[in-house]
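Example (one chain per record):
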Amino acid sequence: MAFYANHILPRVIDCGMRNDFMAEHRNRAAPLATGRVLEIGMGSGLNIPLYGSKVEHFFGLEPSAHLRDKALPLADEAAFPADFIDAWAEDIPLETDSVDSVVSSWTVCSIPGVEQALMEVRRVLRPDGRFIFIEHGRAPDRSVSKWQDRLLPVFRPLAGCSLNRAIDQLIEAAGFKFVELEKDYFDGPRFLSYHYVGQARPN
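Predicted structure:
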């Protein structure tokens, strides 16, 4: 299972992140970031070309060496300095109050210690910083959420995804208040398509 998680799963995730749906909605998070930016779960760097002129420095946190290597050409072409961080979101090796924006695109569902990771996000953000996110998660309709719970034992090991997480509740519990929050079904199977899109500040 370790071989799958370390060598196969990163490739599965990267392939999934390149589909038409992701491409259509990817620009709802990264372009809003400013200043010193940390992206958790950078993957193969698909967001890097979307960051705007207000980005001063980019930190891409990604534990997979394979995905970091794939992101290098995009970082080389960026208009801002970029550093990659070989670490997990549960223990971010950046100083407290050191970044202006943290971006997460379909990442919160995949972090094993999600509560600790979101507390780390809050720690590294400056008091006036923003956590910018687009995530899929737990649907409000019981008929859908029951299927999310049933499918979790399959999706978690094969796709690295906990598709039944209540993203808004997790973010609030980590000490954030929402500046903007949209919750709705997007296109696709309902057990995968309920989304949380927004921005939050440290409370």
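Caption: Residues 41 and 62 are 5 Å apart (CA to CA).
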